[in-house]
Automatic annotation (TrEMBL):
Cited function: Has kinase activity and phosphorylates inositol-1,3,4,5,6-pentakisphosphate (Ins(1,3,4,5,6)P5) to produce 1,2,3,4,5,6-hexakisphosphate (InsP6), also known as phytate. Phosphorylates Ins(1,3,4,5,6)P5 at position 2 to form Ins(1,2,3,4,5,6)P6 (InsP6 or phytate).
Domain of life: Eukaryota
A GO MF term: inositol-1,3,4,5,6-pentakisphosphate 2-kinase activity
Protein name: Inositol-pentakisphosphate 2-kinase
Family statement: Belongs to the IPK1 type 1 family.
Gene behind the chain: IPK1
Region named Disordered: 323-343
Length: 343
């Protein structure tokens, strides 16, 4: 991230020094392990404040604040960032990765955390039901500033999705890993499928849509909300047909296959990341083509030691239950590209 000199790896800003009680904060979104906020500093801080004097006053500009959730049992952020630098960065071009930077949340009890928790309590009704009542990890020492990938202008368009498992399973299987797992979920809980009005997208369609019209329509149906303009839809279709990022992610996944038991951590991380797409249409009337930024995020190090047993048991259940071949009883319906191709 190119900020001021104070914004480098050898100096981690302590954002509690920026008077969090004066911030305007918005809850943006959350996942199972992290919370994301938009922070705006007061427009003109008194010139005597430390933040102003240090030239820190705009580090939130263009960035969001990501903090760990209580109870999520993930690695501390410095470890996530280290993993990112050593293991993720070499795999993808920098323009395809959401940039981030550590920040200190201040001495415990952190004022920043108290304020974020107060906001979460107020935002409760807008949160996903199963996430309500969760708060920031109380003794978290670090947060991250992440590049804000949301729309910057009213005519921009932002889409996010998880590409999941992009390679077909070994031969003779008629379902990909993702669809086999979805079938298993439906099998355990019949209400699971019903919760997905459009069915569940087969991730193999992400790669197939380069040459297959049906796959392209399928992906668009799932990732483009009805509110998108025809022009946004066309730009997304072009990107899906021609991008090099999804094939690159597919290659990285193939190279790090969980069934080989080597680097299970990275294998799982590469199958659980998010992809953010932002389409911006120039507003200067120059007729410049729209720009699409495509960046991977949520490439957090997984706790393989803790999850290994669960992953192995799940794989065994999928194989033994016949979910890779659609032989489970009763048979669950999926929309796997492999099943479509076989019919
Ligand atoms: N850089 C970003 N720009 C815009 N929105 C973002 C950004 N990072 C995260 N978000 C929003 O916040 C949500 C949660 O973020 P994140 O993926 O970091 O949480 P998580 O707990 O790791 O999720 P998961 O449960 O999928 O692992 C995202 O789905 C997205 O909507
Ligand atoms: Mg995550
Ligand atoms: Zn599938």
């Amino acid at each position: 991230m190119s900020q001021s000199a104070s914004f480098s790896s050898d100096h981690i800003p302590d954002i509690s020094g920026f008077y969090p009680e004066k911030w305007t904060i918005k809850f943006v979104n959350e996942g199972a392990a992290n919370l994301v906020f938009e922070v705006r500093l007061p427009p003109s801080p008194p010139s005597t404040t430390e933040s102003h004097a240090n030239g820190h006053s705009d580090i939130f500009q263009g960035h969001l604040l990501r903090v760990p959730k209580a109870g999520a049992k993930t690695f501390p952020y410095p470890e996530l960032l280290q993993y990112w630098d050593s293991t993720i960065t070499p795999l993808f071009p920098p323009e395809n990765l959401v940039q981030h930077q550590l920040v200190k949340l201040g001495q415990s009890p952190s004022k920043v955390i108290t304020i974020l928790d107060e906001l979460l309590a107020k935002a409760e009704s807008g949160r996903r039901k199963d996430f309500r009542d969760t708060r920031v990890l109380p003794d978290a020492q670090y947060g991250m500033l992440i590049e804000d990938m949301r729309s910057q202008n009213p005519s921009d368009y932002f889409v996010e999705f998880k590409p999941k498992w992009l390679s077909p399973s070994p031969s003779q299987r008629t379902r990909c890993r993702n669809c086999a797992r979805e079938a298993y979920r439906d099998h355990l809980d019949p209400s699971h499928h019903k919760a997905h009005r459009l069915g569940i997208l087969c991730p193999l369609d992400f790669i197939a849509c380069r040459s297959n019209r049906g796959s392209l329509e399928n992906v668009l149906k799932h990732i483009v909300p009805a509110s998108a303009s025809p022009s946004h839809r066309n730009h997304l279709a072009d990107w899906l047909r021609t991008n090099s990022l999804l094939p690159l992610l597919q290659q990285a996944q193939a190279k790090h296959d969980p069934s080989q038991g080597v680097n299970l951590e990275l294998a799982m991380t590469l199958r659980d990341c998010s992809l953010f797409l932002r389409i911006s249409t120039p507003q200067d009337g120059t007729g410049q083509p729209a720009r699409i930024e495509a960046k991977l995020a949520d490439l957090d190090k997984k706790n393989a030691a803790k999850k290994k047993k669960h992953w192995e048991e799940l794989e065994r259940d999928l194989v033994e239950g016949g979910f890779y071949e659609g032989k489970e009883q009763p048979r669950e319906e999926t929309d796997c590209l492999l099943e479509r191709a076989a019919n």
